[in-house]
Amino acid sequence: MSRQLGKKLVQWSATRTKSTTEEIVKSLTVPLREHDQPLKVLTPDEKKRAVQLRMKDPKNANDFLQIEQMKGQPPFFDMFMREHTYLRISLTEKCNFRCLYCMPAEGVPLKPKDKMLTNDEVLKLVKLFASHGIDKIRLTGGEPTIRKDIVQIVEGIASTPGIKDVGITTNGLVLPRYLPDLKNAGLTKINISIDSLEREKFAKMTRRDGFDKVWKSIELARSYFRKVKLNVVVIRHQNENEIVDFVNLTRDRNLDVRFIEFMPFGGNEFKNTQFFGYREMLSLIVEKFGEEVIRLSDSPNDTTKAYKIEGYQGQFGFITSMTDHFCNTCNRLRITADGNLKVCLHGNSEVSLRDKIRGGDTDEQLSEIIQKAVNNKKARHAGMDALKNLPNRPMILIGDQSTIHISPLGHLSSSSLHFSHLVPSSHFSSIQLRHYSTTPAVYSNSSVLTHVDNNGRATQVDVSNKSITIRTAVAKGTIILTPEISLQISQNTIKKGDVLTVAKIASILGAKQVANLIPLCHPIRLDFVDTVFEHDLKNAQLHCISTAKCGGNTGVEMEALTACTIALLTVYDMCKAISQKMVLSNIHLVHKSGGKTTFNIDYENQI
After folding, report:
1. Among 402, 406, 403, 404, which residue's Cα sits nearest to residue 169?
2. What pLDDT was estimated at residue 377?
3. Distance between CA atoms of 148 and 474, rounded to whole angstroms?
4. What pLDDT score was predicted for residue 424?
5. Is the distance from CB of 308 to CB of 250 less than 8 angstroms?
6. Helices (H), 104-160
7. 274-323: pLDDT as tens digits
């Protein structure tokens, strides 16, 4: 990385007074141009032409020519022309730690061994992805060193044509017994997770007493690699007071300390009060080191904003998934330990490559499935408040604590993604009623309407024999505002009052009235209703996500949809005195679970 570029950002003339912490932090947090520009979604024809132009560009021609000559497959581009060259593979769901941010205290249900990818299946997928231009592989978990064939897997990946880098993210607990063989097998990069330098706090955060062994692994890794990366998840009131201590480690060590913003995932009980953003982290460092903090130059695909202290051997950085996303240049895909492809860490759509391999699909068919999934990748993931209410795997079941991109597509059922969810709706010539089965990759028409009897008369469904389970539904919608209304909502100056608070309360009240409004709906005792908003000031749009839950024998889809609709209608009502040129748009169900079927759609969290 360029030290000179970073220095310029904090270089002050001799006549200038000493800068304040706020001024220095501001100068050190200028976003990359690539991260700041809006993405344009292309039509299939536009994308085809764009790929052809990219391959003809002299800057890229040699790379693409090498790919085609060696393997004959095009790179995986999404509909925003992001090329994917980096694949993260989770090797196991098991872990010998129980980190607070990664796994629920009670643990997670593990799938049987025969549901996990085998060594041969992992290497088959690596070879396939490499044929499409993937040149960097990172192995994650769970804890990848639990996998007994880890050395053989690394050796197989490193020997795959086209693969340039093989990395691993590990907690380091048992790393010393494997590290020499891993290095000899072709391991080129290593990340070790360590969230505290205090033994007792380390045990509290990992729920295991392993600090000494992890530190030994870090020191050992430094002797094998030019640079060792340390992953530190920062949680307020837990370890933010150690940030400067971690930076001091880089004084005379070849370490790259990466501070990671705490992110909401299934089961980690994320709370806003625990969040500690990267600018707060940087402020603590600047308060200690002042203008000795140097901003290093990042490449567009870097997930870390890199810095160092003047004269220090190592460096540090921030992974800012929540406060300053880097989705614009995302080049990463993920495969879970049970063989599901994910195109976004915070997405919940998944497609089972394992089932396709075991079902006899050819490489060509697999490539087509992967490309369809990549085509469905959204421009960006949702904001922090929305993510708290969106279902996703616990981090332990996705893999890799190092970045925000835990899994690239999302989750539909335990192992499948129906093709209708992979292809944009604009590709369908007509709307059809569909039945979504929980059987992997099954997709069928149905002429049966549950609220109609054999004579075609409306009737209420008898749910008395249905099992009582935890039912969840999520609905999403948008209200398109005028610029003036959008501004006043953001400034909370609407004369009728606090628009978002009133809309939230109205949505909860509305969800409770569904059975009184819609004749064939059952009265339900709701356990939870919540509505969150994301305000897109630039485009004068307000996005709403409503979640409903209950323990019962019938679903809560109508409650979620009603809550979302009432919230948006309330916004309209409170703002219509300014202008009636508002439009309610795209109210739809995006998730349903807990009943006979599981349903997800349009769920890469692009809000």
Report:
1. 402
2. 86
3. 40
4. 36
5. yes
6. 119-130, 150-158
7. 899 999 999 999 999 999 999 998 888 888 899 999 999 999 999 988 88
Q: Which helix (H) or strand (E) holds 34?
A: helix 33-36
3-state secondary structure 336-363: CCCCEEECCCCCEECEEHHHHHHCCCCH
> Which has the closest alpha carbon to 28: 328, 286, 403?
286
Structure-model confidence comparison of residues 482 and 58, the more confident one = 482
Considering only 51-55, 204-208, 321-325, 428-432, which range has the smallest mean pLDDT?
428-432
**Domains, the chain, with CATH or none:** 21-27+68-381 (3.20.20.70), 466-600 (3.30.70.640)
User: Beta strands 541-552 and 351-352: pairing type?
Assistant: unpaired
* Contact indicator for 49, 77 with CB cutoff of 8 Å: no
What confidence score (pLDDT) does residue 528 get?
A: 92
Classify residue 59 as exposed, middle or buried by CB count within 10 Å of its CB (0-12, 13-18, 19+): exposed
As given in the structure block, the two tokens for residue 470 are 């935890």
Contact 82, 331 (CB under 8 A): yes
> What tokens appear for 412 in the block?
């539909």
Q: CA-CA distance, 522 to 451, in Å (whole number)? A: 12
488 vs 535: CA distance, rounded Å:
12
Q: Which helix (H) or strand (E) holds 372?
A: helix 363-375
- What number is the average pLDDT over the span 131-153? 95
Note if 149 is an active site residue. Answer: no
Q: What is the pLDDT of residues 335-346, one digit of tens each?
A: 999 999 999 866
State the Cα–Cα distance between residues 35 and 42, nearest whole angstrom: 18
CB 139 within 8 A of CB 151: no
* Phi and psi at residue 349, to the nearest 5°: -95, 135
Biggest distance spanned by C-alpha atoms of the chain: 89
DSSP string, 230-290: EEEEE-TTTTGGGHHHHHHTTSSS-EEEEEEE----TTS---GGG---HHHHHHHHHHHHG
CA atoms within 13 A on the CB side of 47: 18
Handedness of CA 475, 480, 481, 487 (dihedral sign): positive
Label the pairing between strands 315-319 and 255-261.
Answer: parallel
Closest residue by Cα to residue 238 from 103, 101, 400:
101
Supply the angle between the helices 363-375 and 119-130 in degrees, to the nearest 10. 70
pLDDT at 406: 30
For residue 418, pLDDT beyond 80: no
Q: Which amino acid is at 457?
A: R
Helix (H/G/I), strand (E/B), else coil: 331: coil
Instruction: Name the active-site residue from 120, 302, 573, 602.
Output: 573
C-alpha closest to that of 307 among 279, 335, 334, 326: 279
411 contacts 419 by C-beta, under 8 angstroms: no
The crossing angle, in degrees rounded to 10, of helices 211-222 and 199-206 is 100
Spatial distance between the Cα atoms of 414 and 48, rounded to a whole number of angstroms: 33
Beta carbons within 8 Å of 84's beta carbon, 6+ residues apart: 75, 76, 77, 78, 133, 134, 331, 332, 333, 374
Spatial separation of the C-alpha atoms in residues 244 and 257, rounded to whole Å: 11
pLDDT value at position 5?
A: 46
Tokens 């490489």 — which residue?
Answer: 363
Bridge partners of 294? Answer: 308
Contact in structure between 184 and 150 (CB atoms under 8 Å): no
| Digit-coded pLDDT (tens) for 560-586 | 999 999 999 999 999 999 999 999 999
pLDDT tens-digit series, residues 586-600 = 999 999 888 877 877
This prediction's pTM: 0.62
